[in-house]
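tokens incoming
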């Protein structure tokens, strides 16, 4: 039976609960982080903790715990649930005031904090990484503050279903003619050896994996250009890939039915995946 963490307590999952008045439930007034676990250790915990603080700050939400305590809770859940490979999900909401009201509740309302683990044995050896994934492009109909990692994920969920219905793995979202990102990952193309990915702004989530992968690419003397690109340019690219905490670097081999290159994972995506996994495991805590 899985142990989860809710507001200071480690509980069996069946005994854990939050209020029906919780603003996460009523208004999606909450933020989250997902940190992967490889070999029982957390990958880039510091990056996720930093982004959590940023998301909370942008929403003027109080942090329920300090970073060292947050690390302890992550580690304790990994230990209690014997997670070798998998992930830790963390969510903080603005808490549960007495009534439903659009205005934020009083400052002293306790935030809600929930963490749970998901076990995914062999996470880094996913078969999809060998074949690559296929994507379709869809309009980006999300709100305008995608840099805040809120739990308001309905359009991402709808996008994933559009991809499924089209018989592919994921969707890349398009706004004003350019790709923003995948439903739950950052999007990249490679042309003539150059890695191209949209620059940071409020239009996309500032991926923790993105930051690490771009740094490692530059350290490996690869060329990186941060700019938007169109679906047409993407379909003519030599290769493509996505990054996220739970998929690391995942090759993309088809966009809207157009195969990229020879339709198999490209050399740069494969190399970056190897480098990212190797380097991240070394510094995992
Ligand atoms: N973009 C979106 C919309 C996401 O939901 C995610 C991850 O959940 C990412 C990008 C990748 O971010 P990270 O590398 O921090 O997991």
């Amino acid at each position: 039976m899985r142990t989860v963490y809710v507001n200071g307590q480690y509980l069996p999952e069946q005994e854990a609960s939050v209020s029906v008045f919780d603003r996460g439930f009523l208004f999606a007034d909450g933020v989250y982080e997902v940190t992967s676990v490889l070999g029982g250790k957390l990958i880039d915990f510091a990056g996720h903790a930093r982004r959590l603080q940023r998301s909370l700050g942008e929403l003027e939400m109080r942090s329920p715990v300090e970073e060292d305590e947050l690390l302890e809770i992550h580690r304790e859940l990994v230990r209690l649930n014997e997670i070798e490979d998998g992930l830790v999900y963390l969510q903080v909401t603005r808490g549960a005031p007495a009534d439903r009201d659009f205005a934020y509740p009083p400052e002293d309302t306790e935030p809600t904090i929930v963490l749970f683990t998901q076990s995914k044995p062999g996470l880094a050896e996913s078969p999809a990484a060998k074949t690559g994934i296929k994507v379709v492009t869809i309009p980006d109909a999300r709100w305008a503050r995608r840099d805040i990692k809120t739990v308001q994920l309905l359009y991402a969920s709808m996008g994933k279903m559009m991809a499924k219905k089209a018989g592919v793995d994921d969707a890349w979202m398009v706004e004003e003619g350019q790709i923003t990102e995948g439903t739950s990952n950052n999007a990249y193309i490679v042309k003539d050896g150059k890695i191209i990915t949209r620059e940071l702004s409020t239009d996309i989530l500032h991926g923790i994996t993105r930051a690490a992968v771009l740094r490692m690419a530059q350290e490996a003397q690869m060329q990186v250009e941060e700019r938007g690109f169109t679906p047409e340019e993407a379909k003519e690219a030599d290769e493509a890939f996505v990054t996220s905490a739970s998929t690391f670097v995942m090759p993309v081999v088809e966009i809207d039915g157009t195969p990229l290159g020879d339709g198999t994972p490209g050399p740069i995506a494969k190399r970056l995946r190897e480098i990212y996994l190797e380097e991240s495991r070394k510094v995992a805590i």
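note: Residues 34, 181, 184-186, 205, 207-210, 243-245 surround pyridoxal-5'-phosphate (CB under 6 Å).
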